[in-house]
């Protein structure tokens, strides 16, 4: 276990800025509450269908959702012994379309008792329910309800794949157990790293990873509580190396390897994650200079640090004025790149890869 307090003191500006970013991207409590209430309403309606069990999944259940809270995930598991024609373990191997629509038609009248304007449709893996009732902030979380089947002789469950009228093996229940497991301090710390990593990756013009891949890599590499800035740097460094070596394994060991976003290659993803790691390290190395920290982290969080590039020039002027040699070196190392780099690009040399 690292001496977290000592390391935070050593990186006071880096930790301060990162904490401010974390607070800015954090989900609003009222929005989270609304998403959970909608999800639980859907689960209550699905449970009335006569399912074996229900489950909560996704970033809301895992505690690593960012602002805005756009959706909540959940599922209802059917007992394949009661649905003998469904899925790969049956003789008929019926696809998911009919049972998904049956559950949808059962759930929606109950949902509309509370949300009269709610609408639904089937998507690749779930029943998508939109409530059409935004709150005062304009947030209107939807719910994805997965209709799943138990498996005969294997872990996990069968989940729909409407693209192929088939079922795929997965274990979202295990994923949730892993991400919310004790000890509490590590769970909270890992969730914060995940939220920060997700925000940086999602904000990119072409995201390097899907959210579940971020969670899976964090489970593997964030295994102790450290200073937040150090853990974020470690995450991006390890994620870059891991993706360079191969696709990420399913943490539950049930489904296949986690795919990258459409159009993304392992080489490009690894380079971009490595670039993020370098920028976080730059913030650590220049932690005595808040402007330099902000400039480095602005490469990951431009929306949260929109004035950082201007601040680097101010930092150079101030360092020259007071004769701060280290500050001058830091500002000169940062300012030119900031001035000539109009957009976030791939590769740690500022060029597309």
Q: What's the short story on this structure?
A:
The chain is of the alpha+beta class and 353 residues long.
Features:
353 residues; alpha+beta; 7-stranded mixed beta sheet; 13 helices; globular
What does this structure look like?
It is a single chain. The protein has 353 residues and is of the alpha+beta class. Helix 3 packs across helix 5 and helix 8 crosses helix 9. Strands 1, 2, 3, 4, 5, 6 and 7 form a seven-stranded mixed sheet that branches. The longest helix has 20 residues. The C terminus is likely disordered. The protein is 50% helix and 11% strand.
**Range of strand content:** 5-15%
> In DSSP terms, counting alpha (H) and pi (I) runs of 4 or more, how many helices?
13
Computed CA radius of gyration, to the nearest angstrom: 23 Å
Averaged pLDDT = 89
How many E strands?
7
Q: Categorize the overall geometry.
A: globular
> Helix/strand-derived class?
alpha+beta
Q: What order do the SSEs take from the amino end to the carboxyl end, as H and E? A: HHHEHEHEEEEEHHHHHHHH
Distance between the termini: 37 Å
Low confidence ranges: 334-353
Percent range of helical residues: 40-55%
Largest sheet: number of strands, sense, barrel closure: 7 strands, mixed
